[in-house]
Design goal:
binds inosine 5'-triphosphate, alpha/beta, seven-stranded mixed sheet, Maf protein, 231 residues
Length: 231
């Protein structure tokens, strides 16, 4: 398909891995998916929402407005039952502003020390927004348990302590293909990809509505177009 027939959409991330994953998933659709690095500098979005939904929408709508084209954003994290849903939207910076994955895991394990309830779930929300504000949302979750020691070398973030009973392994012990099939992000992405043709139609309709109305030529029909008489 020629690029002129493709709808340009920006994925609100600088993470090339994420971009590749989305591009691969949407490769059969008439869409030219870019990431933030393909555009000039735009201000960082402050992810201060109280829910994954708030943050995903904030990122998508801010980016769409700033660049004047539709934008997709995702937000995800880990919610632990015994910690009232923490680290939640603070998952990336649970142990502080520049925390590494190891720092975050260490803090999580210390908060859960002696706790019998180890239930936890990863959540992911994908938001697709147009510059005028409206958005579509896709969600996915994956339930598991937090172990008391890390296991496995794969994945990222909290994967080494997230035990998925269906695999009898942690996410860091599972292959990427295995994880993608059942993970929070995998499920949200699959739901979005399944109906992406509808998403494209919806986006085109919203973009068309946003254009200034075409002039109504009927209003000129009875106009007198002759030049004013010179006196
Ligand atoms: P962006 O730049 O795209 O926003 P990010 O690192 O903020 O990337 P997310 O919002 O998707 O990524 O995730 C926030 C944190 O939640 C992430 O840093 C991890 O600590 C944790 N997390 C999310 N998904 C995870 C997964 O599949 N496995 C392990 N940890 C995960």
């Amino acid at each position: 398909m020629s690029d002129t027939h493709k709808l340009t959409i920006v994925l609100a991330t600088r993470n090339k891995g994420k971009l590749k994953e989305f591009q691969e998933l949407l490769k059969d659709f008439a869409v030219d998916l870019k990431c933030l690095d393909d555009f000039g500098p735009i201000p960082e979005v402050i992810e201060d929402g109280e829910t994954f939904d708030d943050n995903a929408y904030k990122k998508a709508s801010f980016t769409a407005k700033a660049l004047g084209i539709p934008a997709i954003a995702d937000d995800s994290g880990l919610a632990v039952e015994a910690l009232d849903g923490a680290p939640g939207v603070h998952s990336a910076r649970y142990a502080g502003k520049n925390a590494t994955d190891e720092d975050n895991i260490k803090k999580l394990l210390s908060e859960l020390e002696g706790q019998a309830n180890r239930k936890a779930a990863f959540h992911c929300v994908i938001s697709i927004a147009v510059p005028t504000g409206p958005a579509l949302t896709y969600e996915g979750s994956c339930e598991g348990e937090i172990l008391s020691t890390a296991r496995g070398q794969g994945g990222f973030g909290y994967d080494p302590v997230f035990y998925f009973p269906g695999f009898a392994k942690t996410f860091a012990e599972a292959s990427m293909e295995e994880k993608n099939k059942i993970s929070h992000r995998g499920k949200a992405l699959a739901e979005m990809a399944t109906e992406f043709d509808k998403v494209l139609k919806w986006l085109k309709q919203r973009l068309a509505e946003a254009k200034p109305p075409k002039p109504d030529h009927s209003q000129f029909e009875h106009n007198d177009w002759s030049l004013p008489k010179m006196v």
